[in-house]
Each structure stands twice: as structure tokens, then as C-alpha cells.
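CORE FACILITY INTAKE
Project code: CF-77B
Contact: R.S. (postdoc)
Sample description: multi-component assembly, two entities in total
Requested service: structural model of the whole complex
Turnaround: standard
Below are the sequence entries exactly as provided by the requester. Do not edit them.
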Amino acid sequence: QVQLRESGPGLVRPSQTLSLTCAVSGVSISHNDFYWSWIRQHPDKGLQWIGFIYHTGHTFYNPSLMGRVTMSVDTSKNHFSLRLNSVTAADTAIYYCARDPRGILPDLWGPGTLVTVTS
Amino acid sequence: DIQMTQSPSTLSASVGDRVTITCRASQNIGSWLAWYQQKPGKAPRLLISKASNLETGVPSRFGGSGSGTKFTLTISRLQPDDFATYYCQQYESYSRNFGQGTKVEIK
């Protein structure tokens, strides 16, 4: 079955860059029907969609995070990645990756990974 | 930016109760509304898309309705597995904002 799993450092220093990877199994990341999203959940439980990427490299980011977010995809490794620069404590959250059929709505999420921004 | 407001924030109910959660959008989103269920330590699970379309494998006791700016999630007969937090999400615009969540707890 299709599974996603996030990985990356659990601690990031303020002003540094947060980098996460999402490994996809059970389906090719190059499947034409799927975009691939990142979503985060802050400690107060608020959820925020960060953006998505298609296997061609086409991206769309939440306007509120534009300028700090970069997503990339590696079809040979069947994974995609998130970079968020100039982080602050407000970027502390659980980060989820998700499958996003036709770029409409995420329907299958990874288990999430906690990233804490602290000095 | 489209804001999503859920009510109530917390709901106390008993097994077998009928439960209704409301989600309001700050502007017309048509039927571009999804509902998720989240249990502690787990990722959200998509229950309903397009305001009323039940996802595969979701029990029929869950139902969604509404359009425009007002939406509801109904659980017809609450089961022990349904105690969780529920979120709505609009996907009419690419901010894809979520509501703040409604925690359904045991009375």
C-alpha cells in the first residue's frame, strides 16, 4: 500500500534552514495523477498547508510562506523535499507530507515529524 | 484570505449520541470543503471531500452537508472510536486554510 514518511533534523537553530524529506513507497512519485504536499501543525494544533510539488518540478506555495519555501523532487529516489529558510520559533511544528491527487486535496498523510526551532 | 471558523471548540457527548459540528467560511467557497479526523499522536485522516463525499472506508454514520459559507459534519450515532478532534479545510483557494478544530470528548 502507499506510504509516506518524513525525515530530517528534529532541532533547527533560529535563522537557519529547515530541511525535510518525504520518502514515498507503494506508488511512483512520477504518477501523473499525484501532486505531493507539505502541511504543518503548530503546537496550538493549528494546521497550515505549506505547498505542493509535481514530479515535473512544478510547485505552488501558500502565499503566506512565499519567499521562504522551496520544494524539490527526486524521482530516482522516489522522494520529495522541503526547505524553509530563516526559521523562527513560530516555525516549530509537526511537519507532514501528503499525497495530493490532481493537486486538489491531500488524501493520504505521513505520520509527521516534529521540528523544534531553538537556540 | 479565507478564514474558517468551527464551533463548538469542544463537544462532550456519549456513545450513541448524534453529534453536529459547524464550519463557517468567511466567503463563498462553493462545495470546496473537507473534513478530517485526528487522534492523538496521529496524522489527520480525510473523512469527507467536496462537502459531502464520504471517502472510501469511512463509516456511513459520518455525513457532511452545506455549501457556500456554512457546513456541517454529523456523526449519527457516536462510537467509542469517534472520540477525536475534527477539522474542516477549505480548498477553494490555495491558502487551503483549516478551521481551528473541534474536540469531541466523552461526557
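Facility notes:
- Chain A touches chain B through 19 residues (CB under 8 Å).
- The longest strand of chain A covers residues 93-101.
Invoice: internal transfer
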